[in-house]
Design brief:
This protein has 339 residues and is mainly alpha-helical. It has 15 helices and no strands. Helix 1 runs antiparallel to helix 14.
């Protein structure tokens, strides 16, 4: 099977999944036992039938559910995700303004998580049943077991409030101006603008929330790395490589990790998706204006267009991440290429 065939097959599988996702997101958003009228109209307007009727008509709530879905799907195919009831702005515009911040945070978090998790997993597998293995496993267990919001509060209190060695909430200090908007990611935009001071400040503000996410993700990656590498280390080809006189570093790095990559890449991909869609609490704790805080506000105000927009975004992210992981399998696992 060549790469083009493999790629097209995966694309054809994604299309019906995305269509099903739009239907499920629409149904879930509309079956929530909450009334957007109560959440968005002032109290003195709730007894005015004309005002309520005008509100329902404006947002299409007076139509049957299937008509609402078909209208929504038609608009979605044209790139229109609807207008937020709360902000009165297009949902797509709100998302595009906030998503880069979450991508920046999640990317920094997954990089830290990979470094910590793969490092701990390697130490744990190479020195199996030693004190280093036990210590690495305890660290991984603590990272997985602690609620992520509690880890964030502890880090914020200790490193920012008590020791004052880390930056606090937000993306920049109040006195700092954002760099010229190119990607929406402050660190990248500051580098593009050659603004070292803004880059350092934005980077420092990323450390605590990204570290909070990384501590949780690293525990998962560490455990998968350990189990996958231990399975590989006991294979015959590893003993053959050692018998040929190859250095242990080369045997583990080239033969071991290369063949242990499939489950590691899978869990890294899923973890990155989790960071992109699951950072709601972290963004609230660190006052980080990303897609998570937007989701929280949309949920508390029963802003159905915004809820559907972020639900679709989250689903598309998971589908996209899995698609990328599937493509990486083609290059990592030679068995797929000859299947």
């Amino acid at each position: 099977m060549n790469f083009l065939q493999y790629f097209l097959r995966r694309v054809l599988l994604v299309i019906p999944i995305l269509l099903g996702i739009t239907m499920m997101a629409f149904l879930i958003a509309n079956l929530i036992p909450a009334d957007p009228i109560i959440a968005n109209l002032p109290a003195n307007a709730l007894n005015d039938e004309d005002t309520i009727a005008a509100f329902r008509k404006k947002w299409g709530l007076d139509k049957p559910l299937h008509e609402q879905y078909l209208t929504y799907l038609g608009n979605l195919l044209q790139g229109d995700m609807g207008t937020s009831i709360k902000t009165r702005k297009p949902v797509g515009e709100d998302i595009s303004r906030r998503l880069p911040a979450t991508i920046e945070l999640a990317t920094f978090g997954i990089i830290l998580g990979i470094l910590l998790g793969v490092g701990l997993g390697l130490v744990s597998a190479i020195w199996q049943d030693s004190w280093a293995d036990n210590l690495a496993r305890v660290i991984a267990l603590i990272g997985v077991s602690f609620p992520v919001f509690l880890t964030g509060l502890i880090l914020l209190n200790v490193l920012y409030v008590q020791l004052e060695i880390a930056e606090g909430p937000g993306r920049l200090d109040f006195i700092m101006r954002p760099p010229p908007n190119v990607t929406g990611m402050f660190t990248v935009d500051a580098l593009l603008a050659g603004d070292r001071k803004t880059f350092v400040n934005a980077f420092n503000h990323l450390v605590l929330p990204a570290l909070t996410l990384a501590l949780y993700i690293s525990g998962i990656i560490s455990r998968i790395t350990r189990s996958s590498l231990l399975e590989v280390l006991n294979q015959d080809y590893m003993r053959t490589a050692r018998a040929k006189g190859l250095r242990e570093r080369y045997v583990i790095g080239f033969h071991g990790m290369r063949n242990a990559l499939i489950p590691i890449v899978t869990v890294i991909g899923l973890s990155y998706g989790n960071l992109l869609v699951g950072s709601i609490l972290i963004e609230q704790i660190f006052a980080y204006p990303g897609i998570g805080s937007y989701t929280f506000r949309a949920s508390t105000s029963q802003d159905f267009p915004a809820i559907m927009g972020v639900s679709l975004l989250f689903a598309f992210i998971y589908v996209g991440v899995n698609f990328v992981v599937d493509i990486l399998y083609f290059f990592i696992d030679p068995r797929i290429r000859v299947a």
